[in-house]
Amino acid sequence: MNYPNKKKSFQKEVNKANLGMTLESDIDATNRYYLDSGIAVIHKKPTPIQVVNVSYPARNKAKITEAYYKTPSTTDYNGVFKGKYIDFDAKETNSTTSFPLKNIHPHQISHLTSVEKQNGIAFFIIHFKPYNEYYILPIHLLMPLWENQYKEKGRKSIPYAYFKDNLHQIHFSYQPRLDYLKVIQTVFNF
Amino acid sequence: MNYPNKKKSFQKEVNKANLGMTLESDIDATNRYYLDSGIAVIHKKPTPIQVVNVSYPARNKAKITEAYYKTPSTTDYNGVFKGKYIDFDAKETNSTTSFPLKNIHPHQISHLTSVEKQNGIAFFIIHFKPYNEYYILPIHLLMPLWENQYKEKGRKSIPYAYFKDNLHQIHFSYQPRLDYLKVIQTVFNF
């Protein structure tokens, strides 16, 4: 019989979440530094949740008793830096050879494309965990690679060599941990 | 005995939520129109929720069984319009004489102040329900009135006449319902 192995699949999910946490907390710490230093105002958006049931067990404290995660229609991070609108998402991979395009959701592509049309700064931060390298991937460079995957024999991933040869790296440091805005100024030339 | 009247207080909360819904849904419809027409990319941020417990009753569908509302650290709306970063919150009042400053939270003031320092466009949309009038209140005009409330005998509200005499109105129409960006271009001169 083909029962799903609940324990294994749950374990997998927990691991994935933990992987995500490090990159997320590094970006959050960087954004907090930017805010406290008056450099930029960039926040992570809350995860959208559909609330179905709320109870009021104590005064003034609503307790949500039934709710579900919704698919976001945008990216995770946005804000303002020197008058420029900044919008991005962060992804990571354990692969040593390529970044799989399935890590990126179609709604993130359409959102960042709309942002770029409004002259916003739109990109992904891609973390290659085995090398501990962080790259800035602007939406206009991603688009031809993204569209190519739907062609016959189109590649479903971006080779690591493409990152190494063509993209700017964010160097990890003490404070801020991931100074991505410094790199963004170079990449987008402002 | 002084028992809290649970039913009454619950009813009150529901009504308040409904009042808010109209303005919120008018702004959401306007933002959808902006997005579909390629005019701007502005979204409402999800309400931040602290998830405490999640169960997995069915495959692939996480059910949140315990969660609580968190206080947001930013405003409700932000995005990009002609390369400009746009950030605002929307408030309404049933008063015919003034807008009470207690409708605005201190974290919204500090957030919009930071945004303005980064040359973002930061403001409130204020709806006077009895007149069905919508005003744009930029953060730099709000600040002296906001700070004044903490002085001795300082006013805790903004008179309706101040809005009428000094601020630009958004006119309600069919599509978009509240064309606030048209007014923003005039107010912020771009």
Automatic annotation (TrEMBL), chains A, B:
Query: Where mainly found?
Result: cytoplasm
Entries under InterPro entries matching the protein:
Resolv_RecU, Restrct_endonuc-II-like, tRNA_endonuc-like_dom_sf
Enzyme Commission designation: 3.1.21.10
The coenzyme or cofactor needed here is:
Mg(2+)
Q: Which GO terms describe its biological process?
A: chromosome segregation; DNA recombination; DNA repair
Protein location = Cytoplasm
**Is the keyword DNA damage in the record?**
yes
Q: HAMAP family, from UniProt?
A: RecU
Q: What's the protein name?
A: Holliday junction resolvase RecU
Look up and give the organism this protein is from. Answer: Alteracholeplasma palmae (strain ATCC 49389 / J233)
Classification lineage: Bacteria, Bacillati, Mycoplasmatota, Mollicutes, Acholeplasmatales
